[in-house]
Amino acid sequence: MKMILENKKNETVFSIQGLTDIPELQFPTFLIFLLCYIIIFWGNITIFLAILSDSHLHTPMYIFLLNLSLLDISNTSNILPKILNVLLTQHKFISFLGCMSQMYFFLSLTLSEVLLLAAMAYDRYVAICHPLHYFYLMSLRHTFALATSSWGIGFLDAIGHAVSVSNLCFCASHLIDHIFCDMTPLLKISCSDTFKVEMLTFVEGAILPIPAFLLTLISYVFIISTILQIRSAEGRQKAFSTCTSHLTCVTIFYGTITCMYMRPTTSYFPKQDKFFALLFIVLIPMLNPVIYSLKNQDVKSALKKMKKKIMC
Q1: Which of 93, 117, 178, 220 lies in disulfide reach of 185, CB 3.0 to 4.6 Å?
Q2: Angle subtended by helix axes 284-294 and 60-89, to nearest 10
Q3: Closest CA to 79 of 39, 116, 44, 33
Q4: Domain 13-311 indexed as CATH 3.30.870.10
Q5: Are 155 and 108 spatial neighbours (Cβ–Cβ below 8 Å)?
Q6: How confident is the model at residue 172 (pLDDT cuts 50, 70, 90)?
């Protein structure tokens, strides 16, 4: 019986609603998102290669930024190609395995980014509040341990979500009213009791993402408190400029993810969720390279060096 159910699941095909059903809008929308994907990939890979090629940037802050660029490329590449394919070919179907894989990688990469942003906040906290102990507390060994832990924990934690959702039955509608295979729209179309899955989501959220957010928040409370104690205005501005990029990125990231997930399944509104999902998948990865390089002289210098090498 179990084998029969597994075979039925493997044969299950979902249909993704996508962005628009209006034929006149599909190709222009495809061009817009193709341009966005090129900008995201080009911007993040440029930051990644600039940091990798400049030995002066092999410091904790830039190693974390390198990992953030890689996460943004990976998460966007997990979602956008399928959206582009749906817009161009109108082939909205995705297999059960493909859908579960897309959901798993989205959840794992998103959680990895939550943990990485917390590690980056801790790095800024140590740099501003305990500058004399910075090279001891944030050695390259500790930095690599924090970065690899963010990736490892994210990918391990998402397994529980993927397994629990894949064990649900989808015997009624197979139409996913979303732009990709996300957990909430999948729970909405399941004919199984989803209470246990939702409880697992809230429990795991309380164990990892919420503490990571609190660590980020507490780090910035101490950072701002320390900066306000600096007597000179120039000193305060210099100290605050080292964490404004990260603070901007964190604000946009958590603002979007809160609107997407911090609510029960019953309050799921497809149009609203599609909008916030697009912000998360497209806008944040597109803004991150701009935010981190706009006022960062070290990154600008590394980009100029890389440009000179390419020209030579």
Answers
A1: 178
A2: 150
A3: 33
A4: no
A5: yes
A6: low
**Relative orientation angle of helices 96-129 and 209-228, to the nearest 10 degrees:** 20
- Sheet hosting strand 93-95, strand order edge to edge: 93-95, 13-16, 175-176
- Going by the DSSP 8-state scheme, the letter that residue 232 receives in this structure is S
Rounded CA separation 1/287 (Å): 50
Q: Which of 44, 118, 54 is nearest to 292 (CA)?
A: 44
Residues of 64-98 as b/e, b for ≥16 C-beta within 10 angstroms?
bbbbbbbbbbbbbebbbebbbbbbeeeebebebee
Give me the residues paired with residue 175 across strands. Answer: 15
Average pLDDT over the chain reads: 85
Helix, strand, or coil here: 1? coil
Give the up-direction half-sphere exposure of residue 248: CA atoms within 13 A in the CB hemisphere.
17
Angle (CA) 127-48-124 rounded to 5° is 10
Name the residue type at position 5: L
**pLDDT confidence of residue 204:** 79
Distance CA 54, CA 44 (A): 16
In the DSSP assignment, the letter for residue 94 is: E
pTM: 0.90
Give dist(CA 300, CA 305) in Å, integer: 9
Per residue in 201-221, pLDDT tens?
Answer: 788 777 888 899 999 999 999
With a CB cutoff of 8 Å and minimum separation 6, the contacts of 265 are 184, 187, 188, 194, 198
175-176 and 93-95 strand pairing: unpaired
Query: What are the residue boundaries of the structural domains of the chain, listed by start?
Result: 13-311
Quick check: 236 pLDDT over 70? yes
Asked if 65 contacts 47 with a C-beta cutoff of 8 angstroms, the reply is yes
Spatial neighbors of 126 by CB under 8 A, at least 6 apart, are 133, 134, 137, 138
| Tens of pLDDT, residues 259-282 | 777 666 666 677 788 888 888 999
Q: Roughly how many angstroms between the first and final C-alpha of the chain, as a whole number? A: 66
Bridge partner residues of 13 (DSSP): 95
Measured CA to CA, the distance from residue 58 to residue 140 in angstroms comes to 9
